[in-house]
């Protein structure tokens, strides 16, 4: 077990299987020392635990937990390309999309679910740039979608 996966276990988490693509794309690709994930939905055992808009059918607290699940799924995608999460030299950027009710403006707080998980797992190497974007709808009516870019050590 890698040190990163041991840290996940310490947090009470296990790395899931890579979520299969919903269309014509790969869950993650490597270009040079970087791995880019596709947008990861908060799938758990092949299903979305909740659907709808944040600020309407989904509470911000639920959405924050879902963003954490997205980040965990992104780590599984990174591992599928890198082979070992201990190769991650740093998390470079996180981009998150939040399906938002018309008056919901708390997207950054929702995305903290992903950012806080990456910080807890990687420490200083998990500090990253980030974008949090509110959108009208996401695939499968998911409340949150997260993509992650990491740099691998040689």
Automatic annotation (TrEMBL):
Task: Tell me which residues make up the Endoribonuclease L-PSP/chorismate mutase-like domain.
Answer: 5-147
Query: Where would one find coiled-coil regions in this protein?
Result: none
InterPro entries associated with the record = Endoribo_LPSP/chorism_mut-like (IPR013813), RutC-like_sf (IPR035959)
PANTHER family found in the cross-reference section: ENDORIBONUCLEASE L-PSP_CHORISMATE MUTASE-LIKE DOMAIN-CONTAINING PROTEIN, ENDORIBONUCLEASE-RELATED
Q: What is this protein called?
A: RidA family protein
């Amino acid at each position: 077990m890698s040190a990163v996966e041991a840290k996940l276990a310490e947090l009470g988490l296990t790395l899931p299987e890579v979520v299969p693509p919903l269309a014509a794309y790969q869950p993650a690709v490597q270009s040079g020392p970087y791995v880019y994930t596709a947008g990861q939905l908060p799938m758990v055992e092949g299903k979305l635990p909740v659907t709808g808009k944040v600020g309407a059918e989904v509470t911000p607290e639920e959405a924050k937990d879902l963003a954490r699940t997205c980040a965990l799924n992104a780590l599984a995608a990174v591992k599928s390309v890198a082979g070992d999460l201990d190769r991650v030299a740093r998390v470079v950027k996180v981009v998150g999309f939040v399906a938002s009710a018309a008056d919901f403006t708390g997207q950054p707080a929702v995305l903290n679910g992903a950012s806080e998980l990456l910080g807890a797992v990687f420490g200083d190497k998990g500090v990253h740039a980030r974008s949090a974007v509110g959108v009208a709808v996401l695939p499968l009516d998911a409340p949150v979608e997260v993509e992650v870019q990491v740099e691998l050590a040689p």
